[in-house]
Amino acid sequence: MNIQTVGVVGAGVMGIGVAQNLAQTGHQVILVDISEDILDKAKHEIRNNIRFQSFFKKGDRQESPNTIIEAIEFSTNYKILENADFVVENVTEKWDIKREVYPLIDSICRADCVFAANTSAIPITRIASVTKRADKVVGIHFMNPVPMKPMVEMIRGYHTSDTTIETAKQMLSQMGKECIIVNDAPGFVSNRVLMLTINEAVFLLQDQVATAEDVDKIFKGCFGHKMGPLETADLIGLDTILFSIEVLYENFNDSKYRPCTLLKKMVDAGLHGRKTGKGFYVYQ
């Protein structure tokens, strides 16, 4: 399948990263969200991200933000997804929201269009069940920041076909990414482990065992991690962390996934990490 035009649904942190990465690798991108304000912010963030990346590519040919932006069509009209060869969905990690999106794009997109759910915890088989193309639904768990991460987790749903897997691998290769294919289960591999780690790190902070700085220093200094669990939580977004751990708790009915009270309190207070300027750390 020749993948030229890719639809990206949701212009949050992950959707912005996916759209930017696709545009930088020669794709025509359709970025869809519910309001012009969100799309204007996305355009501004993509410009800033490209400028930021240029600091790390001093010896390489510099990309023009305008050239990248011109490869992205920003729209609030889902109807334009009818031209997409492939769609990556990145809406909020809440099933009630995702379950409304898929029947809509299913009715608009071509029959051969593949849907990739960029989700951190919601089962792919559940997502596929609200479409009429379950064999063409796959999970692609991109990592943040998307343009700078060379590896993704690909999830095969119960009905996902081998052809769909190969199509998704082809698109990822065009984006300059490798993938690890795993079977469908809530949280998959990465977040089934990571969300537990982050949640337990928040419990350590709540129980006053250590400061956020010291928790992260232990992981970086003792284990060689580039970021500690609380720094990682701020990068991902504490609201996304909470949604994900709640999905794990709901699906497994296991108390080890019980969300920390402090995490819920911080989300209620709007302390979502880097995207709001404050989480476990303060960002200027």
Automatic annotation (TrEMBL):
One GO BP annotation of this record: fatty acid metabolic process
Domain 3-hydroxyacyl-CoA dehydrogenase NAD binding: residue ranges: 5-184
Every 3-hydroxyacyl-CoA dehydrogenase C-terminal domain range: 187-283
Record pathway: Lipid metabolism; butanoate metabolism
Positions marked as site (Important for catalytic activity): 141
Keyword NAD: yes
A GO molecular-function descriptor: NAD+ binding
Name of the molecule in the record: NAD-binding protein
Source organism (scientific name): Dendronalium phyllosphericum CENA369
Lineage: Bacteria, Bacillati, Cyanobacteriota, Cyanophyceae, Nostocales
